[in-house]
Amino acid sequence: MATQLEEATRAFDRLFTNEIVEAKEKFSANPDSPFHLIGLGVCVFLEAALGMEAAHMAEAARILGLADAASKKAMKNQATWTKTRFTPGLEWEIVNADAVVLQGITHALSESYMGYLQCLYALNNAHSKFTKLYKVVYPSGLSGYLTPAASPPVSRKSSNPSLSSTASERPALKPKASTGNLSTLSNVTKTSFFGRWTASSAVTPSSTLTVPGDSDAASATDGPVEDLILAGTAFGFGLFNLVFSLLPKKVQSFVGLFGYKHDRKLALQALAVSAAKQDVHSVFAGLVLMTYHGVVLLLSGYQANEAHIIKQYTAIVDSVQARYPDGSLWILNRAKILRMSGNAQAAIKVLQEGLSPEKKNPFVQADTLLMFELAWTLLAQRRYEEAAVTFVRLTELNSWSHGTYYFIAAGCLISVGGEENINKAQEMFDKIPELIQKKKVGGKDLPTEVLIKKKLDFYKSKAKRRGGDETNYVSHIKISPAEELGIFWNNQSRTNLSIAESHIKEWSMLSPPVQISSPLIDPSTIPQSSQPDLDTPDESALRLLLLGIAHRTYACAASSADIFEVSKAFLEAAHSYHPQIVKQGISTWIGGVVLFELAVLELKQAEFNEKQVQMEPDQLKKMWTEVLKKAKERLDMALELAGKEVDLSSRLDSRIAMLKDEIVTKGDSLDIEIRI
Predict the structure, then answer these.
(1) In the list 67, 88, 141, 189, which could disulfide-bond 38, CB 3.0-4.6 Å?
(2) For residue 528, what is the DSSP state?
(3) What share of the chain is helix, strand, coil (3-state, %, to 5)?
(4) Three-state secondary structure call for residue 186
(5) Can you name the residues that pair with 181 across neighbouring β-strands?
(6) Ordered DSSP codes for 336-394
(7) What's the start-to-end Cα distance of the chain, in Å?
């Protein structure tokens, strides 16, 4: 068993340095070893997850199924067990749980409600295993264990310490008393933080399991199998809780009928403990944390403690990149940190260097993510021509939604302007219907493609209505499709003053003139037209939404109280079109997204006010209590508008969940209870 683990670990080292072909060869060399099967399954899973390749998803599920069966066999074969300070054979339970949870996540990659339900069905087979393993390996919780961002161990003073290395950054919550008995999750307690999972002090592990002492767990010098058990348990428990916490609210509500609870904060702590180890699981725990922190910084809109998140994120990237400096995944996250920290030009440089033809051992699927990040960053910087080229290059790297790449690239060319680019954009639009004819993940069109089909029909109808040629409708598109889709990636938010001003100038120049006064808009520069550029509720609402976001970005960058109010006026005006859009339009997603952006605005405005005005503690608490409750109400209303018939509703659903998490965290820091 030790030999198999050592061989598999060396193969994983190849994977983490981009040598995925060599890694797969090494894993394939021992098809009877559960370690090798799980490694091969992980390779194909990463190809599926990073490249969104349907064929790889099916193959990943097949291999992970073999790993599931092989690890179950090893669990029953005492000859394969290794003697450690833990229960003999525990290592195989962890490998089995790895296989099951990865199978579940493979289903979730479809971003469809059916995929999420299939994911939960698979995770249902693993949740009791993770809970049992956690109670056995960490009987006193995670206190005392190092995390990448903390040089001393996590404090033992609280039974549920936060990830923060200092209490002032994110105070730990005190767990409430245990209530009830929910199936296998007996004595699970619940607090205001999204329903906390913690083992009650009354719970004792099965008498057949050996439990190490508390000091042993935190300080013992372990071998590779013990490290696998410690890192693997924390990774599996953390990953299960995190995945469940990020599923759309509607799916969570469904499975909540079966007694599932989750705790995102504890999940992140468990993953951080795993990431500090040296086992293979620690690298994947780091990757999960990088992905999560990157998504929160990009999509939640507001962070209760952004500096803390970036600190955690940076420490994890530093830790993994020190071991594997050339790995594309770590280069990607280094660039994301730069972009989220306001240094987009440095991020672009890191990404371009990571994609250099001279780079050794290219990992195609990981390089696709570098290219994807580069494309969006170029678009956010209004480097439209480069962005168009980059989005088209993505079609050469994977098979995921070429129609979406073409749609965004065509939008970029419209923004560049000029007859040649406009003609190229129309040619690209003409190719999209054929590109999205083929059914994609789960036998259904991808969510973005459903929206794109509606937009193409909308453009044709507009051209025909205005007396134009519906086969040459590009000249009637007045708001870039690239910028419209960019709203779903929050692409207009983390930019500088110059970019925000350029956006505002471009969108305010469209006719009819906006009816909201802004010091950033000069009405005298708006051209007069007998035929307005925008003549539908959909377009008017979209323009107002974009102007609201751009003004908010400007207000944050310029620290301008007045512009915050202008931003709010634009967003509220955009929402006023919702009844008309529901009756006669196609952009039914705008209503929910506007409410989300209003919640973000009010949170950022309160953050601005806190920095600008010296308040007494009671005044500060009163202000934030009102703002947090109002933001929560807006998000609840947004969730009501995000039905499954609304385009990209699952993405909005997940963004709402992330932002509510930040609202609760801010409330906790001020001793304000927010019921989510």
Answers:
(1) 67
(2) P
(3) 65, 0, 35
(4) strand
(5) 186
(6) HHHHHTT-HHHHHHHHHHHT-TT-SS--HHHHHHHHHHHHHHHHHTT-HHHHHHHHHHH
(7) 47
Q: Residue 264 has what pLDDT?
A: 83
Distance CA 238, CA 265 (A): 9
- Give the closest residue to 64 by CA, choosing from 92, 36, 25: 36
The alpha carbon of 65 is separated from its chain's Cα centroid by a whole number of angstroms, namely 26
Residue type for position 87:
T
Within-domain flag for 639: no
- Specify whether the CB–CB gap between 403 and 436 falls below 8 A: yes
- CATH number, domain containing residue 253: 1.25.40
CA distance linking residue 114 with residue 248, whole number of Å? 12
Let me know whether 242 and 130 are in one domain: yes
pLDDT at 358: 81
In-domain check, residue 620: no
160 SS3 class: coil
**Which value, in Å, is the radius of gyration of the alpha carbons in the chain?**
26
How many domains are there within the chain? 2
How many alpha carbons lie under 13 Å from residue 465 in its C-beta half-sphere?
13
Residue 13 lies in a domain: yes
- The amino acid occupying position 143 is S
Q: Specify whether the CB–CB gap between 557 and 500 falls below 8 A.
A: yes
Q: How confident is the model at residue 22, as a pLDDT?
A: 93
- Does residue 506 lie within any of the structural domains? no
Verify that 289 and 410 share a domain, yes or no. Answer: no
Q: Residue 178 CB: number of other CB atoms within 10 A? A: 17
**Of 119, 161, 98, 159, residue with least CA distance to 246:** 119
* Residue 285 to residues 111, 133, 669, 675, Cα–Cα distance (Å): 22, 17, 27, 30
For 463-474, the DSSP string reads HHHTTS-TTS-G
Same domain, 281 and 426: no
Q: Report the C-alpha gap between 370 and 355 in whole angstroms.
A: 7
Contact 59, 66 (CB under 8 A): no
Q: Is 564 helix (H, G, I), strand (E, B) or coil?
A: helix
CA distances from 512 to 106, 460, 535, 538 (A): 47, 21, 8, 14
Q: Domain of 114?
A: 1-144+224-298
Alpha-carbon torsion 244, 249, 255, 257, what sign? positive
Query: Cα–chain-centroid distance for residue 194?
Result: 18
Same domain, 275 and 409: no
So what's the pLDDT on residue 61? 82
**204's tokens:** 């004792």
7 and 132 in a common domain: yes
Task: Give the model's pLDDT for residue 155.
Answer: 33
> Can the peptide bond before residue 512 be classed as cis, meaning omega within 30 degrees of 0?
yes
Can you name the residues that pair with 150 across neighbouring β-strands? Answer: 147
Query: Which letter does DSSP use for residue 146 in this model?
Result: -
Chunk the chain into consecutive blocks of 10 residues (it has 676) and report each block's average pLDDT, rounded to whole numbers.
86 91 94 91 85 74 88 87 86 88 75 67 73 90 84 34 31 32 27 24 30 42 85 90 74 63 84 92 93 94 95 93 90 96 96 87 82 97 98 90 96 97 98 79 76 96 94 96 97 95 96 95 84 95 98 97 98 97 93 98 97 93 97 96 89 91 94 89
The values of phi and psi at residue 582, to 5°, are -60, -35
User: Which pair of tokens denotes residue 193?
Assistant: 């933080």
- Please name the amino acid found at residue 530: S
Q: Are residues 291 and 420 in the same domain?
A: no
| Residue 619 CB partners (closer than 8 Å, separation 6+) | none
Q: Rounded to the nearest 5 degrees, what angle is found at the Cα of 508, between the Cα atoms of 503 and 514?
A: 140
Q: Are strands 185-186 and 181-182 parallel, antiparallel or unpaired?
A: antiparallel
Residues contacting residue 226 through CB under 8 Å, at least 6 positions apart: 84, 85, 86, 220
